[in-house]
Specification:
This protein is of the alpha+beta class. The chain has 2 domains: 64 residues, no CATH class; 164 residues, 2-Layer Sandwich (Muramoyl-pentapeptide Carboxypeptidase, domain 2), CATH 3.30.1380.10. The chain is built from 9 helices and 6 strands. The strands form 2 sheets. It has a 4-stranded antiparallel sheet with strand order 3-4-6-5. Helix 2 packs antiparallel against helix 3. The protein starts with 11 loop residues before the first helix and ends with a strand. The structure holds zinc ion. Zinc ion binds next to strand 4.
């Protein structure tokens, strides 16, 4: 059916204009009063849910002079308006890495050390029956802050990559490594999956200075002096402390020690079996 150029079909606006022109005056007054009430309600709702800034957008969405009414966007709950976290909750894992600080209008609030280093969630049980149950405080990978001077434990989020979801710990905490180290680990995991059929079980990666302080306070001298941990430079990871899966002499440990170096990931000499500080779970990226 051809379009009648120059003669658009009547719109709601023109229809309303005709209605106003032909209606009795008291009907027009009544319509105006109803529309004014809707506008006031929309503005009030926006101020309650978002604060004064969004009142302007609600005003824009209020009835126009033509009488066309557009409903304001659905208001979120007041809880989200009052808390408004700048960083996603650990339980909601986005499919892509978070935006760099440059793309963020306001830097996210830095979580307290307690919030980043301990969680209420219960980790997946250790599948190795020979391991003594862990009863100490639970520490998780630190959430990097938007800003940082680049020193140990003060890496800005822009220097780190968030690893894919397969690397989340057993409680769903995301992992962060220096960009090159993360890319290399993804390639290493691809090879690991090809060999064993499932991804590495990552426990810990980046550790902020504040969390290094908290861990040192909780565990004493077996933890690194704050400011010296390789985890604070974004190039270290711990697999889960499951001795029957990753312990010395296991198939997976031997494979990682043999194949990790071709991806830049090594078991440092001090962490080897019989060395000064044997930690079968700890690996470092050396490029
Ligand atoms: Zn470690």
């Amino acid at each position: 059916m051809p379009t009648l150029e120059g003669a658009p079909p009547p719109t709601a606006r023109t229809r309303l204009g005709r209605l106003v022109a032909t209606a009795p005056r008291w009907v027009v007054v009544a319509i105006c009063l109803v529309l004014a009430g809707s506008a006031a309600g929309a503005i009030s709702l926006a101020v309650h849910a978002h604060g004064p800034q969004d009142a302007a957008s609600a005003l824009a969405a209020s009835p126009s002079a033509s009488g066309e009414v557009t409903l304001p966007p659905t208001a979120p709950s007041s809880a989200s308006a009052t808390s408004a976290p700048a960083t996603p909750a650990p339980s909601s894992v986005p499919a892509v890495p978070p935006a760099t600080p440059a793309a963020t209008a306001t830097p996210p609030a830095t979580p307290s050390p307690v919030a980043t280093s301990s969680r209420a969630a219960t980790p997946r049980p250790n599948p190795c029956p020979g391991d003594a149950p862990y009863t100490g405080p639970i520490f998780v990978t630190s959430t990097p802050s938007a800003t940082g001077n680049g020193s140990n434990g003060h890496l800005p989020a822009s220097k780190l990559s968030r690893l894919p979801a397969w690397a989340n710990d057993t409680m769903g905490t995301p992992q962060y490594l220096l960009k090159n180290a993360a890319a290399a680990l993804i390639r290493l995991d691809d090879a690991f999956v090809a060999r064993f059929g499932s991804s590495l079980d990552i426990d810990l990666t980046y550790r902020s200075y504040a969390d290094q302080v908290a861990i040192r306070a909780a565990l004493g001298t077996i933890a690194a002096v704050p400011g010296t941990s390789r985890h604070g430079t974004g190039v270290a990871l711990d697999v889960q402390e499951w001795s029957c899966i990753y312990g010395f002499g296991t198939e997976k440990r031997d494979w990682l020690v043999a194949n990790g170096p071709s991806f830049g990931w090594v078991s440092p000499a001090w962490a080897r079996e019989g060395a000064s500080n044997p930690e079968y779970w700890h690996y470092e990226y050396v490029g």
